[in-house]
Amino acid sequence: MMRADLELIHRWVPEGAHILDLACGDGTLLAALARDKRVTGYGLEIDPEGITACLARGVSVIEQNLDEGLVNFEDDTYDLVIMTQALQALRRPDRMLDEMLRVADECIIAFPNFAYWRHRVHLGIRGYMPVSKSLPYAWYDTPNIHLSTFNDFEHLCRQKNLEIIDRAVGIGEQEGHWATRLWPNLFGEIAIFRVARRRR
Amino acid sequence: MPEFPDDSVGLVMPQMAHFDDPLPLACGRTLPVYDLVYETYGTLNATRSNAVLICHALSGHHHAAGYHSHDERKPGWWDAHIGPGKSIDTDRFFVISLNNLGGCHGSTGPTSDNPATGRLWGPDFPMVTVSDWVHSQARLADRLGIERFAAVIGGSLGGMQVLQWTLTYPERVANAVVIAATPKLSAQNIAFNEVARQAIRSDPDFHDGWYVEHGTAPRRGLKLARMVGHITYLSEDAMGSKFGRDLRSEDLSFGYDVEFQVESYLRYQGDTFSSAFDANTYLLMTKALDYFDPAAGHGGVLAEAVAPSQCPFLVVSFTSDWRFPPSRSRELANALIRAGKPVSYVNIDSPHGHDAFLLPEPRYQAVFSAFMSRAASELGLEEQA
């Protein structure tokens, strides 16, 4: 059983695509995509245990720090770049978005929504930095240095003139109930965006 | 009689394969007849699909694992990684390790007889390249009835042979493991090799390479060459933590005898090596290193050179390796990525410099084992009884 966000992304990836999975973790998604959809490509990861797990699964994994960009990947050489749960930990998420859409036409990005109502309660009423299932760290040891909201991300895409092809929100990674809701910025804990360069 | 450890392949016996079919070499010359000495560990399965080839580095040889006798003090040079339950698991794989042509451990080389002259080959032994080695290794595979290797594996110069295998005989390699290697030497690498060669060639006992006939050997030159080489195998940190500025005795002697521990160590390494290794072989091996550059025939574009390869690669580097630093392994991994080939790249945190590839290290072993057991299960290799 895959994490619910990965389950949804799995559905969005086309058959036979050549893809990159940034911060691919233990390679679960890439292994499933290779098996079910004949997908090829590479996972990028820096966590030693994740890398070993990828190798055990037969996933091609490159030890690479995403903050150094994707310089070793050429323009327009992939169908799709996927990044789950890493955007908020990057030094420059905006530049990574440019990089992802340099090597591919399309990308799928999943990240925790900072404006999720429980987070708002933590910060707005109780006056503490939010700690939740999607943001499990304390303020002092969190790798998440660029938290954003559903609205923030849409705003960035508009600024960059990117096309949002699809979006979905979820309550908790583990729950399989996904739907586009009336107020996603309030009720969505995890946001998943499918973004493309506008065709000129 | 002392027992061998449980995870050792135990007592091993070198074997010899003689070849009568002449081997054309890259330099234009032909080796009319030759012998290759090799060892095997584990059991070849009925379908001959579990064979692994080990390619050795500059001063390596066929004795990669186990012991030649109960009195042998140290096991083979890669015993940390070859054996039952180890990264290259001899319960599943049949491992072949040979001494390359030009070597001085039993395969035909400068210390063998030249059938044309009746003298030793000496400096007349033809220059051999990484490609030549790969061709000769393929003939050994033919002899042993192995059509396709489950994996070809090597570190340093051995890693270059692995890369060459995937380009020359892509259909004969199911998996490639390239450790602490480089797709070509840098100017600095060649410079160090040249210092080593000059040390040997300028030794008065070198006699243009005919030292055996003069009843001598360029030991001082070979010792110097090894001392220089050894510095490049260790990292500054590793040397620092091993020796620091420790002195052999309490007071400075204000002379040129050994004073610092690091001097003593280097001299010892040089002496041991120069009494056991052939100088002409050392010269040949360093030239094979210098010449290796598969991208040269493709306008320097490595991504084009690697196009023939067909198998998954594992490329491993070590953080403190400054002989073939991580950037060189990344260069290879990136070329494979550009060519759309399946490749994994791992950079192991180690203080041991280039020598790290020989040593056991938990993350190195975990990564290596994970790749090899995935290879084994993909090939349907069961544990051998």
Automatic annotation (TrEMBL), chain B:
GO BP terms: namely: homoserine metabolic process; methionine biosynthetic process
Note the PANTHER family from the entry.
HOMOSERINE O-ACETYLTRANSFERASE
Q: Which NCBIfam families match?
A: homoserO_Ac_trn (TIGR01392), PRK00175.1 (NF001209)
Specify which residues bind substrate according to the UniProt entry for this protein.
226, 355
SUPFAM superfamilies the UniProt entry points to: alpha/beta-Hydrolases
Residues of the AB hydrolase-1 domain: 50-358
Subunit structure comment from the entry: Homodimer.
Q: Name one GO cellular component term.
A: cytoplasm
Stated family: Belongs to the AB hydrolase superfamily. MetX family.
Q: Which Pfam families match?
A: Abhydrolase_1
Q: State the protein's purpose.
A: Transfers a succinyl group from succinyl-CoA to L-homoserine, forming succinyl-L-homoserine.
Q: State the reactions this protein catalyses.
A: L-homoserine + succinyl-CoA = O-succinyl-L-homoserine + CoA
Residues the UniProt record annotates as site (Important for acyl-CoA specificity): 323
Official protein name in the record: Homoserine O-succinyltransferase
Metabolic or biological pathway: Amino-acid biosynthesis; L-methionine biosynthesis via de novo pathway; O-succinyl-L-homoserine from L-homoserine: step 1/1
| Organism name | Billgrantia pellis
InterPro entries xrefs: AB_hydrolase_1, AB_hydrolase_fold, HAT_MetX-like
Q: Which GO terms describe its molecular function?
A: homoserine O-acetyltransferase activity; homoserine O-succinyltransferase activity
Q: Which UniProt keywords apply?
A: Acyltransferase, Amino-acid biosynthesis, Cytoplasm, Methionine biosynthesis, Transferase
Q: Where in the cell is it found?
A: Cytoplasm
Domain of life (superkingdom): Bacteria
The transmembrane segments are none
Active site feature: 156 (nucleophile), 321, 354
